[in-house]
């Protein structure tokens, strides 16, 4: 009896504190995705650990509306007004002032920060200013260097590789997924390092599978270091137990070393002079120059900065090749199932004054001309909508003074320091903006003129979020669209495609969401036969 009283007296303050904290937490008023959400983050962590976050958030928003509480310090939004406009265009930081927890620190390379992993907006925008010009749409679509690089990669590597598929026992049948990843890696690394210093994964299947194996092997080990970095470090330090196996660290080191090799090669080209315009390392030269200038201003010697540049460019090749490869895989999959769309696209491609044919002289049509093809644009855009390569969520932290989220009937005050996020994969399924949202219908992007101004802007600008929005939006979106358009144009100018085996084509439930199976078997057929 006396023991019980003592126990109650001991526990009571904790219970009281818990109840008080819960009672004074404004998030208590936001609908909970799970009965435990207002009390503990165990549930949402369990959801993430099981890789069912996309499906879970979708159900939660369907049932509870555009603002949902996921944990005692976490909210998910699924709306533009009172949602992505406030959080992303409004420039919420990627981490707290104390930087106690930065979800994006996981994307650090060489132990050095890059744009994507940088927590603070101020440091981030200094870096972004160094790069935004060379990645702008006007520079990308008019760059003679990039055009020369893409021309070589498509005519000398990509189209011949497709032609090779006919010299096999099953003519025209191939697993297109790795080839698409190779093409995007070769193009992005060419723009960064120059053609001479970049990868040639299309022509080197061995290196391609070496790289893709390294890159993909790490995917399933994101949860612990990204969501619970302190626990992960604690368990390793005190129990000697690795939640992330050692070979994942080794894979990261190998990828870093590979990237560093390309950096050194580009630096050599810069010092020896560029002989062929395609060898100009556009991004690396701009970035290393700007970093050196910055270091000089801060009167340090520039020596430590080779790894800053390397960290930045590794982020760009990783962010760029994978996402574009995923998108292209779905473009090909959808086109292969929709023969009428495919035929219409081919008719459009044949209107090009210099068509991209295997037999023609290797000059690509102008970047602006390819960019302006309306049906090709619609096909790419619709794929980015229905199969966003990064469906999210994109976590940010509410500012110290707090904020209001949601709109109309349901506006909630959210205090400072709360993890808030939205997901492209969910925004893109809004039936009011994208009718028959689960259907792949490129035509919807051609019918924009028929809509009133407000509806059109909803579709084009407000709810389309494949590249995010605000100051931390994708810096490579124009390069991504440029290369995807050329690759699709080159392929469908000469071939039709049909599906042979698409088992496991569904997107995985992850931040970056590749198909569950990395094989997509298609059959190519020459257009003239
Ligand atoms: C279809 C292709 C692509 C998709 C869907 C995509 C998507 C995204 C998204 C959603 C973000 C924003 C993340 C956030 O808000 O935190 C982002 C950021 C970024 N992307 Fe892309 N991306 C693509 C291609 C590329 C390419 C080709 C590059 C190459 C340069 C690239 C480089 C980056 C970088 C450096 C950032 C960080 C930007 C910053 O922090 O300011 N991406 N991307
Ligand atoms: C997310 O989940 C919904 C519902 O389960 C599904 O329709 C959609 O395809 C998923 N999106 C991604 C990118 O996995
Ligand atoms: C690092 O990359 C270079 C090529 O750039 C290669 O020769 C070397 O073997 C690699 N080192 C390790 C440890 O993988
Ligand atoms: C807001 O309330 C009005 C009237 O009570 C209702 O018609 C409308 O559907 C509600 N909107 C939302 C987003 O719940
Ligand atoms: C931000 O910092 C506050 C105060 O230290 C903390 O309570 C909160 O959990 C932090 N939020 C995030 C998302 O790290
Ligand atoms: C590519 O397509 C064009 C026009 O459809 C055709 O003339 C040419 O022979 C094709 N080349 C190959 C190798 O299929």
UniProtKB/TrEMBL annotation:
One Gene Ontology molecular-function label: monooxygenase activity
User: Organism classification, top ranks?
Assistant: Eukaryota, Fungi, Dikarya, Ascomycota, Pezizomycotina
Q: Report the PANTHER family cross-referenced here.
A: CYTOCHROME P450, CYTOCHROME P450 12A4, MITOCHONDRIAL-RELATED
UniProt family annotation: Belongs to the cytochrome P450 family.
Q: What is this protein's name? A: Cytochrome P450 monooxygenase-like protein
Cofactor(s) it depends on: heme
Q: Which Pfam families match?
A: p450
The keyword Metal-binding appears for this protein? yes
Alphabetically sorted, this entry's keywords are: Heme, Iron, Metal-binding, Monooxygenase, Oxidoreductase
Source organism of this protein record: Karstenula rhodostoma CBS 690.94
Q: Where does heme bind?
A: 474
Spell out the PROSITE patterns in the cross-references: CYTOCHROME_P450 (PS00086)
Query: InterPro entries, per this entry?
Result: Cyt_P450, Cyt_P450_CS, Cyt_P450_E_grp-IV, Cyt_P450_sf, Cytochrome_P450_monoxygenase
């Amino acid at each position: 009896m006396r023991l019980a009283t003592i126990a109650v007296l001991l526990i009571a303050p904790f219970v009281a504190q818990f109840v008080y904290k819960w009672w004074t937490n404004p998030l208590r008023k936001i609908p909970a995705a799970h009965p435990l959400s207002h009390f503990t983050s165990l549930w949402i962590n369990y959801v993430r650990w099981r890789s069912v976050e996309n499906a879970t958030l979708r159900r939660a928003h369907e049932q509870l509306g555009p603002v949902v509480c996921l944990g005692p310090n976490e909210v998910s939004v699924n709306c533009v007004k009172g949602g992505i406009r406030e959080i992303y265009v409004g420039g919420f930081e990627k981490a707290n002032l104390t930087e106690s927890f930065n979800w994006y620190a996981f994307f650090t390379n060489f132990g050095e920060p890059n744009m994507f992993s940088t927590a603070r907006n101020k440091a981030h925008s200094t870096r972004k200013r160094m790069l935004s010009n060379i990645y702008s749409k006007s520079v990308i679509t008019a760059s003679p260097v990039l055009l020369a690089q893409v021309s070589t990669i498509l005519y000398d590597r990509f189209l011949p590789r497709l032609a090779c598929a006919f010299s096999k026992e099953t003519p025209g049948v191939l697993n297109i997924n790795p080839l698409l990843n190779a093409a995007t890696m070769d193009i992005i690394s060419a723009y960064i390092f120059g053609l001479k210093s970049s990868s040639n994964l299309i022509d080197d299947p061995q290196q391609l599978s070496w790289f893709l194996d390294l890159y993909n092997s790490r995917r399933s080990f994101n949860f612990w270091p990204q969501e619970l970095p302190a626990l992960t470090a604690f368990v390793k330090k005190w129990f000697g137990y690795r939640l992330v196996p050692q070979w994942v660290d080794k894979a990261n080191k190998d990828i870093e070393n590979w990237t560093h090799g390309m950096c050194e090669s580009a630096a050599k080209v810069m010092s020896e002079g560029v002989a062929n315009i395609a060898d100009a390392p556009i991004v690396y030269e701009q970035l290393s120059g700007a970093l050196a200038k910055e270091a000089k201003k801060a009167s340090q010697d520039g020596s430590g900065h080779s790894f800053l540049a390397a960290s930045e460019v590794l982020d760009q090749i990783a962010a760029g090749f994978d996402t574009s490869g995923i998108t292209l895989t779905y473009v090909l999959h959808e086109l292969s199932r929709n023969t009428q769309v495919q035929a219409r696209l081919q008719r459009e491609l044949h209107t090009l004054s210099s068509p991209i044919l295997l037999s023609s002289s290797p000059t690509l049509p102008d970047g602006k001309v390819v960019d302006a093809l309306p049906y090709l644009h619609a096909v790419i855009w619709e794929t980015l909508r229905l199969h966003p390569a990064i469906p999210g969520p994109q976590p940010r932290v509410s500012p110290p003074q707090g904020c209001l989220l949601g709109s109309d009937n349901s506006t909630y005050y959210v205090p400072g320091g709360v993890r808030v996020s939205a997901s492209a994969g969910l925004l893109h399924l809004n039936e009011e903006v994208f009718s028959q949202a689960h259907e792949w219908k490129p035509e919807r992007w051609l019918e924009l003129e028929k809509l009133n101004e407000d509806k059109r802007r909803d579709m084009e600008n407000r709810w389309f979020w494949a590249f995010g929005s605000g100051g931390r939006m994708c810096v490579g979106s124009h390069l991504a669209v440029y290369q995807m358009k050329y690759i699709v144009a080159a392929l469908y100018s000469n071939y039709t495609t049909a599906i042979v085996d698409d088992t496991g084509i569904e997107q995985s439930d992850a931040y970056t969401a590749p198909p569950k199976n990395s094989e997509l078997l298609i059959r190519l057929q020459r257009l003239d036969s």
